[in-house]
């Protein structure tokens, strides 16, 4: 069996390994469980299968990311402007056309500095490397104990091959997929891979499992990335590297392409529109200028064209957007949402479908007993979480004392003694469970009636036990006080089968068929209400039973009752779901739980209504992708779904035009998180892999936090539109003013590239930054989300920008013509340029105040709700005045001293923009009425 012929290769077409027996597996892998592989066989297999590693596809290098930033169409145009400006300065130097005060190449240097800064900003946003695959690699142990040549040795994990016999011990991190051949009390934590929180008991003799058995139920296998919690065992390696379940996830991760966000698409569209429009306008101006005066003014026309090109590009926009997104991330962190990728802040505002896990996100992830049922009595229990405080209520909602009901006292005693968990308070005074959450809920229940675990355990000794297993589905403990008593808990149906009597008051009565049917009916009703139900029984004993006598001992039991517990919905989740529906966002629940449980919780929260269709993982498995795409329109609950199904659900929703946020915590969730428009990882229970694949991390694992983050995303997008409206309105005005000057015969360029950069970066930039923190409009979550495919110019923004740009230009051109003529007469021929420059800058201050709201007048808005805007208007106005009245700045920016009269004229003309926008609002009100 141990010989390896030269043409050995793994069988490619056989059934999955979990369906095979141990002997068949060892024979197919040509290995011996007592000797293992020889070194020569291991080397040959290593050369055939390759290293046992997760392989990464080559991504973009840092240099490539940096160079990609300079492919932006607006930056390319600015680079062209800088080059032409430098050439013109060089011509002027050679022709001695520069005055003594003029500094050569300052426009070129300033423009190139802006280009470089914008390129670096983009690089910093994109340079976060994709670390999800690196986190996957970290899940496998660097060393593993292997049987080679009959000896137990330690080898590096990458050198493991199919057919190797590996040893499993508590604390080991597994680095290959294997078929178990020996096990002793072996428990594996597979939550990173499957999303299931509870440890899985492993059994080597579990044979004949169905081919479609899901990963979490393959109890005869172990997998890469999981951890041995307790026990020991031995397994034969069946898959390594990219063939493992973890490797398949890595392949899925690498197959998911990163799509540009809506904001990135809109900015690309904006750049193309602006650059194209600018080039067309430049061509028109040069053509008209040449037709009017011939080629004699070509240099002046080129200078005009350069100024127009600089004016059309909002140089400060990338910085303003980056700061806006960064401020959005800070606000989201305060609301327990950590944004990992900056553009995701705005993307959240477009979400119209939120696919959420149930456990821990929509629910508290704390099992709380809600109901206790004896044969003749029903009790309902109040309280939250694991805190052992609450009341027992009867059917009339009256508080009762447990001491008045002997059967209830016995049942609560069983809850404490037939239990391996511990309930305690931490340093912060919070109650927490060490052990199984279900057993913790039983301790909390007993504590509400005054049954203290420590007191009972000190008085009553556990002498033996029959432990729980997935085959038995029950647990029994034998305890000694003054007498021997066995307490049993487990599956209600199985416990009831073993009962012949029931406890009622101080009596033990025979259990009739009618009472059995009543108990089963009550059990089904509780399960239909999303309760996890346990049955309890007990039996007095005369002697301690032997370990192999469990089957005989657990007969003729005395029925105590049913205990129903619930992972209750979060109190804030129902309100968050209602807010979602009001905002036009569809919440979808995806869970591994039973359909009844999922449906009950979904109805409590308002996610689903009675009669809504539920899709199970088994049904989903048999649907083709086109069929699933048709189903997702009607399904709000997915039950018994494995994490790998999430990727299909996301893709189907996206195919239907939905913009999807998806939550997840396990390694298997990573491909779906990466595929989703917004991948949301759990901060508390999430794995490193899921966090690295996500766009956002929930610091409190709470659904309500997703809704809060979505609201912030809408605010950010609204503010981005607001300051684009503000910036581009003036930019268009600048372009038209510059283009008009030579056409109407004015001598000289009204604005130099340096002055335009000042306007675009400072007088536009500072108020734009202040508009980025404008508070949310009152109706922000009372309207449907805007389509992620909509243009940046949608919903009247484009028309507004053009309209305001024209008003800007009409006001400024009127001033320019008057100032030019009066300047010629007064002997200050260049003052008109400074007046144009000043008017445009100051007009933007009024525009910034007016643009805060599309509908409300400025006097109707609290001026101190955005104090940053008031401060920016004051500071920017002072800075503009410094350019005129401080000599060093005046020389650098080529401005002229203005008289008080000229300054007041500039103020008068600039205030007309504010008046116009306010009158527009009044007109729109009248028009709507």
From TrEMBL:
Subcellular location(s): the record lists: Membrane
Q: Which residues cross the membrane?
A: 73-91, 103-124, 273-292, 304-327, 723-744, 756-776, 797-820, 832-851, 867-886, 898-919
Q: Name one GO cellular component term.
A: plasma membrane
Q: Name one GO molecular function term.
A: ATP hydrolysis activity
Q: Which domain of life is it from?
A: Bacteria
Q: What is this protein called?
A: Calcium-translocating P-type ATPase, PMCA-type
InterPro entries membership: ATPase_P-typ_cation-transptr_C, ATPase_P-typ_cation-transptr_N, ATPase_P-typ_cyto_dom_N, ATPase_P-typ_P_site, ATPase_P-typ_TM_dom_sf, ATPase_P-typ_transduc_dom_A_sf, ATPase_P-type_domA, HAD-like_sf
Known EC number(s)?
Answer: 3.6.3.8
